[in-house]
Amino acid sequence: MAEEAGQKPAGAELAAAYANSYNTVASWQGSTGFRPHTFRFRDLGGAGRGIGEQFLASTRYRRADRETQASIQSYFLDAGVVMLARDGDEAIDGLVTVDLPRGVRLRRELGDVLGRRRSVRQYTGDAVPLDQMATLLRAASAITASGRTGLMEGGEREISFRVAPSPGGLYPLETWVLPLRVPGLPRTVWRYHPKRDLLIEEGDTEALDAAAAAFAVPEEVINLRQAALLVLLIGRPWKVLRKYGDRGIRYLFIEAGAVAENVHLACGSLGLGSVDCASVHDDQLHNALGLDGELRLLAHAIVVGVPS
User: What is the pTM of this model?
Assistant: First the structure.
């Protein structure tokens, strides 16, 4: 790090340079058994690879990967087309459902919303109306159009398209919501059903409280107790793994980012505050919601509230 005008670097600048270095500057720090991630960062290129590095290496797409190529091509056959057309078809007879209201039209100019987007971590504790929550859920994963495609054996199938892009149109994410302060909606766990544009109950009040308690972020960092709702993006990884192999996991998280940004921009247009939150005890949340953590798991979470 270059010094300016012959001055010595400030303490904070020197500490930042040390923290960002690959080589250990103060060797005594490595003499303890406590190994924060910064220490592992300095071992990059060494013999021991971390899980993250293994993931990056294992999910590379290679030119000679004939198995993945064959898997992708199979989705262009009739069976693959029919499977995509029937995505979201499920029996909901006997389940508790709630029809969503029309929602609020997003009127702010996109450029204005983009320029004003900020992560909001402190909230007033006020409620968010049900029609505004409906708008957020539709911004996340609503069906916005459909098209028809022909089958080789004859006939056609209708394929739906959603508001956020998805790998191969597979839509491996479900949008769940924990309404902490949403008048007119029971305080239980809900899943948004894009094809029917309604909510399906997935857990009771006890499950909601247990899932909310799985968030590990301190209150002074994100004021969860004053938030109005939590949006959970629940992944079903095998929807992409069976087509793209291990690389499909990358695509699932890319989709989660696209969905999350839609929610944030909708919040900005409505005057709500939102922030991404990855500080969650996964196993605790999975247990609370009855998820196995492999075939169905938490991919991402968004906190929403009225900004203070």
Answer: 0.86
